[in-house]
Structure formats: C-alpha cells, structure tokens
Amino acid sequence: MANTYVALAKSVLTSNQASVTFNSFSSAYTDLIIVYSARGTESQVNTDIYVTFNGGTSGYSTTMLYISGATTPASSRVSSSAKIEGYYAINANTATSNTFGNGEIYIPNYNGTTQKPVSISSVGENNSSATQAMDSVYAGLSNLTSAITSITISFFTTGGTSILSGSSFYLYGIKSS
Amino acid sequence: MPATYEPIATSTLGSAAPSVTFSSIPSTYTDLRLTIFCAGTSTAGKGVAIQLNSDTGTNYSGTRIYGDGATASSAKQNNFDYLFFNNTSTSTTLPTFYTLDFFNYVGSTNKTVLQTGSADKNGSGSLERVVSLWRSTSAITTIKITLYTDGSANYNTGSTFTLYGIKAA
After folding, report:
1. What's the whole-number mean pLDDT along residues A84-90?
2. What is the pTM of this model?
3. Of A37, A177, B14, B146, which one has the greatest count of Cβ atoms within 10 A?
4. Cβ contacts from A onto B, under 8 A
5. A15 to chain B, minimum CA–CA distance in Å?
6. pLDDT of A70
7. Is the pLDDT of residue B69 over 70?
8. Mind spelling out the 3-state secondary structure of chain A?
9. Residue of A1, A139, A177 with shortest CB distance to B125
C-alpha cells in the first residue's frame, strides 16, 4: 500500500480538559501533523495555544505573526520559554457561540537528533464585527535533540481547564519514503 | 484505501550543495507538497528560490507577509525570475523548515503556490507566508530549489527535501 497521511491517534473531548496529550505513537514516520478544531474555555474572545514535547518545560521559543480582525497585523517573539506559544490562536469562551477555530501543527523530522522546528497555522472566524477573528502563523523551536515521544497541547487559561468539550485533535504520521 | 498523500521523491544531502532538483514529476496527482528541512553552511542563506520546468524568465510573482518577532511586514514582487522566500534566513546550527503547496500542478491554468517558512532561532529569526503565481499553463514536471543568498552559502549536509503527491480521489 502506498504511504499516505496515516492516522495515528485522535482525541475528541467529551468534557472540558486542561490539555490533550499524544504519547506512545509510532517512531516509523518522518513528520507528524496534528489537525485540530477547537475552542478555549477562557472568558475572552480568543486565546493562545501552547505546545510542549516529552513533558519538557524549558528550551522553547516562538516567533509569531498574527492578524486579529480589529487590529493591524503584528509580530511577536517569546524566547527561552516553558512552551511553544502562539498568541491569538483560537476562539475562546466569549466568541460567537458554537464557533470553533481550526489549525495545523506540523512537526518535521520528529525522530531526528537536531533541534525541532514547528510550524503552526491557526484561524478562527466569528462573522461578527463585535468579536475578533484571527489568522495566525507561528514558527516554534524546541531545543530537544532526541526523538519526540509525546506531544501536549493546551490553551491559555486562568482556570483549571483550557479546552472546550467538543474540540478535536487528530495526529497523523507522514513517511518520506 | 485510496492513496492520498504519497512521497514521490526525497533527497538528503550527503555533502553541501547549492541546489536540489526534482525532475520527471509524475502527472498522476492533483496537488504537490514540497517540504524542506535545512541548514546553511553560513548565515548568508536568506531563503529559498524556486524555478519550475527550467523557466528562467520573469514569469513569477509573489505577495508575502512576514514577521521578525517585532514587526509584521508585507511586500510584493512582480515579474521575477523565480518564486521565493527571502525573509527566513538559514542557520548553520538550527534547522529552518519550509512547506510549499502547488495546487492543480498539471492543470492548464496558471499555477498558484502557497508557501510557509519557519525560522525561529530562540531570540532571533522570522517566519514568512507567501502566495506565488507562476504564469504558465504547462504541467509542472521539474522543481529546482536553490538556496537564496546574499553572499556565499550552500545547503548543509543533512538538509532534506521531500516531494509529496496528493490525489483528490
């Protein structure tokens, strides 16, 4: 069978959660992609996305480029951080109801022995002039030089949970040969 | 199960080189995705230049948005002799990652390409998103990938270039 975009795992939330973690996935692929449809629980229009690997809480950095409907495009950077983080990534609790944002997290060469770049694209549209849409892209970097064996995704929150029930995350593996 | 996202070819450099070419690309897919995972031999590498079907004419154009961690900027180039990234510098030690999506690459219309470049360097670096147009109604059969520089630099050993084919059905 031809190599394809192979589904490795999924997480479809049936209750609000603090985070989603994929672990024990195969090392047989070249790259990983996580595709998500999600909404945050924080009481604001949109919220930030966080990604960490192998439970690590240091050695991450992110350069960001984002457009939030009410403002001009902007760029930010966070260095030497506890996580890869992207501002204005996804719809949150005060966005138009029943609207989820979408995104893709691309992790190339996840088994390699070099540091790990990550490309994230995230969008959310609310069809409302009173609430903000967002279109964001992030370049992340982890200083991890061993294989990625777990991936944890969460959103900014001041409460106990960050991801709304009904959000879905799908992990795919891609082989280069 | 239908084949959807198939690797067509991959090239991992065993020694430094200024460019990589994928040729004889089959016409049996709907779209193509090219991924580039690379480092440069010096910091003179500024991005990637792509030429299709050996076309060196000024038949390429692009509109880009890019951020350097402080400022978001936009630019447009018309009538260029390649499509490119020019705001995502390579590092000699940290990998830079690019994706390029070529839509309807065998169709008889001009070719649209969507590009993303990710080059965070923990305290520096940038990212770039580009939409490009190649004004040709020919099917894409060759893709030449050259390191875009403002000095002397090559793609370093270990840089990996992979071309995938995607079928609509």
Report:
1. 92
2. 0.92
3. B146
4. 129
5. 32
6. 62
7. yes
8. CCCCEEEEEEEECCCCECCEEEECCCCCCCEEEEEEEECECCCCCEEEEEEEECCCCCCEEEEEEEEECCCCCEEEEEEEECCEEEEEEEECCCCCCCCCEEEEEEECCCCCCCCEEEEEEEEECCCCCCCCCEEEEEEEEECCCCCCCEEEEEECCCCCCCECCCCEEEEEEECCC
9. A139
